[in-house]
Amino acid sequence: MISQVFILSSKGDHLIYKDFRGEADKDAVSVFFEMVTALSGDQPPVVMSHKDLNFIHVRQGGLYWVASTKTNASPFTVIEFLNRLAALTKDYCGSLCEKSVRMNFALIYELLDEMVDYGYIQTTSTDILKNFIQTEAVTSKPFSLFDLSNVGLFGAETQQSKVAPSTAATRPIMSHRSEQGGKNEIFVDVVERLSVVIGSNGVLMKADVEGEIRVKCYLPTCSEMRIGLNEEFSIGRSQLRGYGTAVRVDECSFHQAVKLDEFDTYRILKVCPSQGEQTLMQYQLSDELPCAPPFRLFPTVEKDYGSRYTDCDLLSQELSSPDQTAELQLKNKAILWSIPRFPGGAQLSALFKVEVPSLSSASLLEVGPVSMSFELPKQTCTGLQIRFLRLSPTQPGMSQRWVRYVTHSDSYTIRI
Amino acid sequence: MSANSLAYSEQSGAEAAVELGQETTPTSSAGGAAFGLFSTDFKKNEDLKEMLESTKESLKLEAMKRVVGLIARGKNASELFPAVVKNVASKNIELKKLVYVYLVRYAEEQQDLALLSISTFQRALKDPNQLIRASALRVLSSIRVPIIVPIMMLAIKEAATDLSPYVRKTAAHAIQKLYSLDPDQKEHLVEVIEKLLKDKSTLVAGSVVMAFEEVCPERIDLIHKNYRKLCNLLMDVEEWGQVVIINMLTRYARTQFVSPWRQDGVFEENSEKAFYDSDEEKKEGAAQTKPYVMDPDHRLLLRNTKPLLQSRNTAVVMSVAQLYWHLAPKHEVSVVTKSLVRLLRSHREVQYVVLQNIATMSIQRKGMFEPFMKSFYVRSTDATHIKTLKLEILTNLANEANISTILREFQTYVKSQDKAFAAATIQAIGRCATNISEITDACLNGLVLLLSNRDETVVAESVVVIKKLLQTQPSQHSDIIKHMAKLRVPVPMARASILWLIGEYCEHVPRIAPDVLRKMAKTFTSEEDIVKLQTVNLAAKLYLTNSKQTKLLTQYILNLGKYDQNYDIRDRTRFIRQLIVPNEKSGALSKYARRILLAPKPAPVLQSAFKDRDRFQLGTLSHTLNSKATGYLELSDWPDVAPDQSVRNVEVVEAVRINTRSDCYYRRDEDHSEEKRLCSHSYLVFCSRSDEGQKNGRLEKSGSGSGSASASSEESSSAESSSESGSDSDSGTDQKRNTKPKPIKKVRDVIHVVHCFCLSRLFPVQVSSPVFVPVRPHELLHRMTGKGLAAQYHFPRQPCIYGDHMVSVQLTFNNHGDHALEDIHISEKTSTGQSIHCFRPIGESGSAAVLGRTCSKTERFSVSIQPAVGELLLPVTMTEQDFSREQGKLVGMNESSATITMAPETVSSQPVSKKVVSVANVGVVPSGQDNVHRFAAKLVSSGTLVLVCVVQKDSSAQLTVNTERTVVGSMLLRELQTALSSAP
């Protein structure tokens, strides 16, 4: 059972501290922080113990979310609870960062009070908690150039008014203030994570796509939402129907609230989303990408014994367009290539040559795999798309619906 | 999730602008918000008291909000206690709640003042609003003032019988709080727990088990009666409760059921034997092993937890996984694999703990995770500790078949930038090489190549691993030792290892070893301590084997060591000198010097670090820490003999009450998918009920009141009918068919109704549970004749819920038509002296939207239920001796027998008993002989014993039925005859 819960900033400031059972010392917080910082390595172990007190922590939003326990609690329960706590904090406070936690002390304290009683987790469901939580979230409305740019010259509508900024989805779910009260918005994200291993001969050795459809809902009243996916969406091999550009995934799992009665025939997900963020559907595809991997790298290693260089350096770069930039970051051992514009149907290429001094022939063995990390907006590797997003009954007034697609690299490795 | 850093548009650069904008906003910067508020509070803290004492609700509320804000930040607000406590009686719920928060925080410090509020709570406990009742109890129990223990006790007891499940749940939570305040109350609290365990609400179930686990985990006997209920409720308990219940049930099951594993082992052994050996041996083996029949309750637990593997709560998934690991037969455990692998896509903290558990599991059961080997490939983005765990698992999974794939993966890992990980990979390679002898050479060569790596950790690790590998087979690898002797490695540990290797195997490299010693002598003074120690060792070993060449060198090194700064080295030098250099004083030991220094050393066993973790229950903190955490409860070993199963039987009245409350009859039945659907449906209904109860506490009262009323009325009616049938029990075949009315609402297509044959005269022989046979439905009404309504019946062979002395018949109605059917009932009692109770009309059936256009009350169909004689029996357990004795009494007229030719497939023992059991509801009598099968049962109507005996002789068999009732005997004989002689 949980003895204490506390939230620390990355610098070790106490943001929230709550003791549930009064069995642990108050200095546990500082003990924990010492332990976390004393450890070398990129990430400290999830479970640490000091005397008979055990700390379990997760890191989210740059904060340490820590629970301590004296008994033999299931670590999964505690980790899951901390993750839920972080998610709920995000839902209620808007965004998850030191500042928002600082400003919403009272709200988080109240949340904790309702979620945990004497160290026992009672509920973490937004729908239930909504009835109990009285405190209102405090948000700072950031000044944004972006808001200004939404209004074109002389009030004309610009193209940008058709898009919402990324921060649009980071406001608290429960705001009664009039300025935001009218905004009935719903955000749908299709996020895919790509892990790919390409062999030294350019052959795709392993390709996995993990995707999910996330919904962040601000609609105060629960109305039914229908999300239409591609009609040719199929699960598993058996469902492939004839020719055509089928969108195939291997496995698919849904949130328990999703009703699937129209899924089999029309590929429509029906759901009454509760306020806050939730993952409606998770899917994965392994080993068979419907399209070519988005990035290709052709590595060659040459031995040049007459080296003139003493330091690792980017020898030459050839970029296909002048507005792109590339730089070598020695600290991260990485090359950063930024592409400001990428028109559809285009292909971009770049050639980089890096000189590494004092590489003996034996140590050529050490040249490890190259890994790439990227973020591709408006693109899904499986081809999954949302055909429509309908709310029924149609909300009076402005209910805005937003959809976005992102593909991340999870682990994109090219072996040499 | 970094997805949020991306705009919902092309303009992903906007983020930066927004960030900038935030920074430039002066009023809302971090410090400004928190401390700005606080600094203004400083002034206003004075007026907080006034605000709290004002008459305006809004002012009070405002003040309380600020006070709670102070608490949240850890500021002291205790001086406001008197002013706050006054508001505890406020009518405003919002204000009240804030006061409660304050009270819980400060009550322990200000006990006297806190007592002022107690009476308010006592009043609030009687409030009509369940939320207020619950929160009053919660706060009252959180006030840690010893004086109010009796009040708390009383409040908990009262709340435990509250009509609102939410209040009862709170009462369950209060139990452990009171227990920690005053452990002397345990006895009373256990009583409350016992009462709450009986509760049918899903809300309460989780909480009361939490209390049970903290207060009295040793009172496993409290669970017996609630076991089946908990299993069935499990799906609908909220997720945190599920975790606790599953863990508790795991412990429970380990004490109550016999192990499904031992039998498995025997079974496997047998099949292997059958494969290799002759048939005689096979028969012998079959005779030795009693077939393992899993307790139906054990099966129930496994079956009901399985769907939870799909839960989105990782804690639930893991607890089900550990349940399967600890309880399921070995061949069923693999169902959890996929779910565990799915958890690997979760947060990295979850990944870490899941991988730890998989590592432990993969040591014992390689096959379970082998198909998912790819999931454990290391990704470039993984953190180091996750990478090492994955390595561990891959190493555990390695076998002759997949080793080449795994080694290829390892080759890339060695090149990783993360050197700690590369070093761990080398260790993993070493472990694979020792485990799988075919690849030892390949691994060694690969490792030798790594010795020229630039990174010293990699080199050091390689040397250490090579050393361990060479120890297992040094003779073939003198060239590797030579190669290593030539190496000049910068890492001290690696150099020390090389020196040790050369010393240990100096006989394999007789020419190089002295030279190495010479070189080391040159640099001795500037070496690290660990290298010096090994140099001394090498010198000593060479002195013993090759003293001609190395005598002077050794003395030189020993002299250097004598004046070393480190006392370890001085000690070692002195010891070695006394040991190897013969002089007058130390004759005794130097004789043995050779045997001491050059003793053959056992090769190190490279084994997993997770080897010993399986002593802890999976998924617990103790397992993660690899040490016992406080409050860890050991899983007991399986009992040798299963404790009495009947302790879990629930009385009839209880079952009926479940019925009426869930508005739908639900029975536990093996693998009956329709029933499962029905069951989930019934819970839906049930849940919505309890929600209603939450909203309106009073309303629920009438509901449950009527529920219990109908239960009791049914009870009395069944009692009545049984007494009635008791009177005409002598007339034997006269059975009274008693049809129970069941109110059924809104069930889509399937309706189950139970008929009961009332039996008389309890038989003294112990009735055993029926052997499970597949359901054989019989047609009662075809859908064509029934104009859309189809009915089937079968004999579920379950003990009748109305009493042990009845047999149940299950009717299944299907509405194939497109109209709703209403008011289905049996209108007339029919034929052959059997009377039928009238149905109470069944509410409606079919699509609930279209209400009764055609009523089945307008249609009449005559139907008949024809029970096979075998279904009118109840299985009985008896020993072989009892059987023969009873059989001896029933000879002559009472015996009917026949010889039958059996189909060849039926010859072995299993099919015979299966066939007999499928025809008649009889119990198997354990038999000592392989070719004799005995079955016993009693007749339901009169309780007369029916004994069946099958004696097999090659392909023919002698079938004997002994019973007082000759008609039944001959009918049964005929049915068995046809069943046994037909092919399976």
TrEMBL record, chain A:
Residues 183-415 form the MHD domain. The keyword Membrane applies. GO terms for cellular component: clathrin adaptor complex; clathrin-coated pit; early endosome; Golgi apparatus. Keywords: Coated pit, Endosome, Golgi apparatus, Membrane, Protein transport, Transport. Signal peptide: none annotated. It is found in: Early endosome; Golgi apparatus, trans-Golgi network membrane; Membrane, Coated pit. SUPFAM superfamilies: Second domain of Mu2 adaptin subunit (ap50) of ap2 adaptor, SNARE-like. One of its GO terms (biological process) is intracellular protein transport. It comes from the Eukaryota. CDD domains: AP4_Mu_N. Its main location: other. It is a peripheral membrane protein. Component of the adaptor protein complex 4 (AP-4). Adaptor protein complexes are vesicle coat components involved both in vesicle formation and cargo selection. They control the vesicular transport of proteins in different trafficking pathways. AP-4 forms a non clathrin-associated coat on vesicles departing the trans-Golgi network (TGN) and may be involved in the targeting of proteins from the trans-Golgi network (TGN) to the endosomal-lysosomal system. Belongs to the adaptor complexes medium subunit family. This is AP-4 complex subunit mu-1. The lineage of its organism: Eukaryota, Metazoa, Chordata, Craniata, Vertebrata. The gene is AP4M1.
Automatic annotation (TrEMBL), chain B:
SMART domains: AP3B1_C, B2-adapt-app_C. Residues 872-981 form the Beta-adaptin appendage C-terminal subdomain domain. It is found in: Cytoplasmic vesicle, Clathrin-coated vesicle membrane; Golgi apparatus. It is a peripheral membrane protein. InterPro entries: AP3_beta, AP3B1/2_C, AP3B_C, AP_beta, ARM-like, ARM-type_fold, B-adaptin_app_sub_C, Clathrin/coatomer_adapt-like_N. It comes from the Eukaryota. Residues 694-743 are annotated as: Disordered. Gene3D superfamilies: Leucine-rich Repeat Variant. Residues 745-859 form the AP-3 complex subunit beta C-terminal domain. The keyword Signal does not apply. One of its GO terms (biological process) is intracellular protein transport. Pfam families: Adaptin_N, AP3B1_C, AP3B1_C_2. Keywords: Cytoplasmic vesicle, Golgi apparatus, Membrane, Phosphoprotein, Protein transport, Transport. Residues 707-732 have a biased composition (Low complexity). GO terms for cellular component: AP-3 adaptor complex; clathrin adaptor complex; clathrin-coated vesicle membrane; Golgi apparatus. Belongs to the adaptor complexes large subunit family. Subunit of non-clathrin- and clathrin-associated adaptor protein complex 3 (AP-3) that plays a role in protein sorting in the late-Golgi/trans-Golgi network (TGN) and/or endosomes. The AP complexes mediate both the recruitment of clathrin to membranes and the recognition of sorting signals within the cytosolic tails of transmembrane cargo molecules. AP-3 appears to be involved in the sorting of a subset of transmembrane proteins targeted to lysosomes and lysosome-related organelles. This is AP-3 complex subunit beta.
